[in-house]
Design goal:
By secondary structure, the protein is of the alpha/beta class. The chain is built from seven helices and seven strands, in the order H-E-E-E-E-E-H-E-H-H-E-H-H-H.
């Protein structure tokens, strides 16, 4: 295998080992991901037919883009969805600060944060957004674990974003506040039902299904 394959394997196994940890409220594993959402306004008001069907004109107006942030504790059964205008390094740092200061994380010793391997998902982003003392305070509260390049499917937050999109956002929404309200209601509903994730893909599974990526040791 190539050096790139070896890097993928090393990062993947690190993520899978994190997912194998037992649930520990003092050291929770939180997954985060973000996605853009295009703001679309109807060019004409939809009409409702006599049979109750809602007819929507194919024409629409673009109103820009916002970004949806997903933070989820798969074993704790909660998720938090937020909406921002952008997703820069400073935006990421601000979202992480909200996570660290969230009352549900008040008693945690350290949060293991699983995220995609983007250049904004770095501790250095904290120092772009805050003064050194505040940046260090936040950095000391988190352990960053990155999914491998081209391996974002290992991020459980991506699964949650997929569910959010299918159940809530796969329609025309014209402004950021409406999307934020819809996401808040969706997350609260799932949190009340304590919906978690039963992750089944283990390191042993990876070594069978992705064995082409592993080195072959010849004695």
């Amino acid at each position: 295998p190539s050096q790139q394959d070896a890097a993928f394997v090393a990062s993947m196994e690190q993520v899978l080992q994190v997912y194998a940890r037992p649930h520990d409220p003092k050291r929770p594993v939180v997954c985060m991901d973000e996605q853009p959402k295009q703001l679309i306004r109807e060019a004409r008001e939809p009409i409702t037919t006599s049979t109750g069907e809602r007819r929507i004109d194919h024409e629409y107006l673009r109103e820009g883009v916002c970004h949806v942030w997903m933070f989820t504790d798969p074993l704790g059964g909660w998720r938090d969805v937020r909406v921002s205008d952008r997703r820069t390094a400073i935006d990421w740092a601000q979202q992480v600060k909200v996570l660290v200061d969230d009352p549900r994380c008040a008693d945690t010793q350290r949060i293991t944060l699983v995220c995609d391997n983007l250049n904004t998902h770095k501790l250095a982003s904290l120092y772009l957004a805050f003064d050194p003392e505040e940046a260090l305070r936040i950095a000391n509260r988190i352990e960053l674990i990155h999914t491998p390049k081209h391996g974002s499917w290992l991020n459980i937050a991506e699964c949650e974003l997929s569910v959010l999109t299918r159940q809530c956002l796969r329609r025309r929404l014209s402004d950021k506040q409406t999307i934020a309200d819809e996401c808040y209601a969706w997350a609260n509903g799932r949190n009340r039902r304590q919906i978690g994730v039963d992750w089944q893909f283990t390191t042993d599974n990876a070594r069978v299904k992705l064995k082409r990526l592993y080195p072959k040791i010849v004695e």
